[in-house]
Known about the structure:
The structure holds 2 protein chains of 2 kinds.
Chain A: H1 2-13, H2 18-44, E1 47-49, E2 54-56, H3 60-63, H4 68-88, H5 90-100, H6 107-115, H7 122-132, H8 140-147, H9 159-187, H10 191-199, H11 204-232, H12 236-242, H13 254-264, H14 268-292
Antiparallel strand pairs in A: 1-2
Chain B: H1 2-23, E1 25-32, H2 35-51, E2 56-63, H3 66-79, E3 86-90, H4 91-94, H5 109-112, H6 121-125, E4 128-129, E5 132-133, E6 136-137, E7 143-148, H7 149-154, H8 165-179, E8 184-186, H9 194-200, H10 217-231, E9 236-238, H11 247-254, E10 260-264, H12 268-274, E11 282-285, E12 303-307, H13 314-326, H14 328-338, H15 351-354, H16 358-362, H17 368-375, H18 388-405, H19 411-423
Parallel strand pairs in B: 1-2, 1-3, 8-9
Antiparallel strand pairs in B: 3-12, 4-5, 6-12, 7-10, 7-11
Protein name (chain B): Arabinosaccharide transport system substrate-binding protein
Pfam families (chain B): SBP_bac_1 (PF01547)
Signal peptide (chain B): 1-23
Amino acid sequence: xxxxxxxxxxxxxxxxxxxxxxxxxxxxxxxxxxxxxxxxxxxxxxxxxxxxxxxxxxxxxxxxxxxxxxxxxxxxxxxxxxxxxxxxxxxxxxxxxxxxxxxxxxxxxxxxxxxxxxxxxxxxxxxxxxxxxxxxxxxxxxxxxxxxxxxxxxxxxxxxxxxxxxxxxxxxxxxxxxxxxxxxxxxxxxxxxxxxxxxxxxxxxxxxxxxxxxxxxxxxxxxxxxxxxxxxxxxxxxxxxxxxxxxxxxxxxxxxxxxxxxxxxxxxxxxxxxxxxxxxxxxxxxxxxxxxxxxxxxxx
Amino acid sequence: xxxxxxxxxxxxxxxxxxxxxxxxxxxxxxxxxxxxxxxxxxxxxxxxxxxxxxxxxxxxxxxxxxxxxxxxxxxxxxxxxxxxxxxxxxxxxxxxxxxxxxxxxxxxxxxxxxxxxxxxxxxxxxxxxxxxxxxxxxxxxxxxxxxxxxxxxxxxxxxxxxxxxxxxxxxxxxxxxxxxxxxxxxxxxxxxxxxxxxxxxxxxxxxxxxxxxxxxxxxxxxxxxxxxxxxxxxxxxxxxxxxxxxxxxxxxxxxxxxxxxxxxxxxxxxxxxxxxxxxxxxxxxxxxxxxxxxxxxxxxxxxxxxxxxxxxxxxxxxxxxxxxxxxxxxxxxxxxxxxxxxxxxxxxxxxxxxxxxxxxxxxxxxxxxxxxxxxxxxxxxxxxxxxxxxxxxxxxxxxxxxxxxxxxxxxxxxxxxxxxxxxx
Lengths: 300, 424
């Protein structure tokens, strides 16, 4: 009995074993919840799946990808990713700078107010936005554009207004999170640099352009990278607006398409094939993006 | 002493187990996406337990959101564990569960066949494969026309004079001229305008051999007609919100937005629940016909209740469902409590069906079921294949939307495009 205990203590305390024990939770979670599903998705993408039966059908599922819905989904997701990044990088930087400035009053209030939406569930928020973008003249969105003299719009049945509605929901939700990233980046910039610039006679714009932006570059790269992932994997927002069927695919993203194919039409094999392409697309887009930012260049 | 005590305890335990086995309460699990169905079956369980004191049932019902329930059930059946004894499956999803050669649902033939003479068989065919019935329907879902008689009266239109769709258009033009309001609304993001008419005119999405006939001439005629209602005769508008279950539509209609609406009979519940201001103004009539003597209705929508092969109590579950959904008593309750037109047509002229309830109070009809009895033989079966969920998806998302809302395609083009996609 004692020897077992001794062995146990020795084993657990040994420098060779302990690290593996500490990382094992991650490794196990990774193997069971990430690696296994990925491998099984790859296998399923070559199969026709029924109840308890699976038949290999070669590349059939991948051949089906050449259809108009996949093209529409790809376009919607890409468009959405593009617009969200275009707004969700400059705008939070600007607001972060304002919130970081000593001159701004009620900073803490604004910080928490802007962050609040990130804490709500997409579905709950989506319900609100779904009604806000209703088509009667009395809905929130139509009342607002009514003030500008524009007639009521059928927001969710037309491709451009639909994209605007999606991007607005996304911006509303993620603005606060991105501001937090940039705020922490800003607080890491030493004041001494700004003071030196003051002495050299730099104005606010110069300081922003030559000190703030370059110092924030790692944060910007990080935010863009996760936004690319976030944009392409977007599903809940589209689901909140249209559930599973968006007219003429105007709001159907790649993940909505996977969902519809896999669950609504019970075509798991084809859904897996779409999933694999999504993985590849996100990988390629991010590699290009990181390469452009010079992340793979060797340090001089 | 201790030993005696332990023995005694053991004996008590044995007795306890045998005793509880004698009372025999079987727990059946039930998944649904519709709270009304849960409430209904729970009442039916109480009735069952009164009549079967030695074969008690405890129903463990869970209501999930529509999509979540269907997905959960699909995964449970696909993986072979975790499915409930009984579940509700909506008609447009049903084909998913019959895919492949090993159905995961239990056939009802032995209990349902003897009753078939009193039932609307077409509704059972919706949930069947290779001659096996896998689902028990709640209702017929006869499609009818709901008229706002206040608006038609204002225009001097007598709704009983509307016999053909041509009459309907003429009446619509009168209503439009007199009130400025559209005669009706056409769904553009769901299929409840197009599909009932396709069925009514005697066509379908699939032929009996499963081949695709969505782009045939009859369907083109139907879609052209719907398009004309909006753009040629100018007596209809695309449904506010896109479909007749949207909040926009309910607000619009409750505010006397349109003079009529074509939906299945189960839509009565929505009137009562969401459009209270129309109480006493709405009247239900059969659909106008395409040709003299043509069908005046179409059976639409529905939910099949199934027993899964993972159940340990298949026979009990089957017996219970037949009693709870198809018996005479159950058929009465389906009408009085849920406002459904029960599939057991034999009960339609029972006195209880014409007694007043929340539905008869709401609508101006004297006898809703007398009217249904009239049209019961005018309901075509709809053909359902493995591709049905995909086909309904296309009807919802593309066909009416592109033609009537976007006006980017002609009826023929839109139908052809959808049919070609199904043929791939």
